[in-house]
Amino acid sequence: MQIYPDCDAITRTVVVGGLTKSQLTHRLQQHSILINKYGETLLRDERFTTSETEYSLKTVELSVKDLGFPNGATMPQIFRQASELGLNLCPLELGPYLRLTYFDQPESDKGRDSQEGHAPSGSITIASEIVSADDEFPKGFYLRNIKGELWLRGYIADDLHQWNSYDRFIFGETIIKG
């Protein structure tokens, strides 16, 4: 089993910042991005902030298995291992900005239905700092394409939740000043 950096990783450079929360929300609406109630909760929360200045963030998309967990892992295990591999948590604001640039996300795997308590098939979770220890408050964003409709969704998971080996996460690799 090959783990990061010796595995197939998807890298992207995303321009983040430069918009107010209101402008960012308006931009999501302009692009017909759908948002679930947890995503809306995060966007409205005072702890969701946007950078006044634009910067570029190089990201890395990996599966849980690519981090060295062939049988899955919990969020604390995933975040700890990513840190040991030199990866960083992303700013919470990356979720909306990435959704606004990643329009060609493949549709969900129709052969693998989503099950309650598991990440939906085809979803990509943004590994970001948790803003609330409350298990009922959304932990972050994930991206999904459902029947051609692009979603920015928030999710709830506690520290005991077991992520599957094929679940995909995006981590920050490098901030590029700009």
Give the CA-based shape. Answer: globular
Beta-strand residue percentage: 25-35%
Q: Going across the major beta sheet, what is the strand order?
A: 1-3-9-5-6-7-2
Total of DSSP H or I helical runs spanning 4+ residues: 4
Order of helices and strands: EHEHEEHHEEEEE
Provide the helix percentage: 10-25%
Low-confidence stretches: none
Write down how many β-strands occur, each being a DSSP E stretch of 2 or more residues: 9
Number of domains: 1
What oligomeric state do these chains adopt? single chain
Largest sheet descriptor: 7 strands, mixed
Mean pLDDT: 93
Keywords: ATP-binding, Helicase, Hydrolase, Nucleotide-binding
Protein name: Helicase
GO molecular function, one term: helicase activity
Molecular structure report:
- It is a single chain.
- The chain contains 4 helices and 9 strands.
- It is an alpha+beta fold.
- The protein has one domain.
- The strands form 2 sheets. It has a 7-stranded mixed sheet with strand order 1-3-9-5-6-7-2.
- A hairpin with a 2-residue loop joins strand 6 (140-146) and strand 7 (149-155).
- The radius of gyration is 15 Å and the shape is globular.
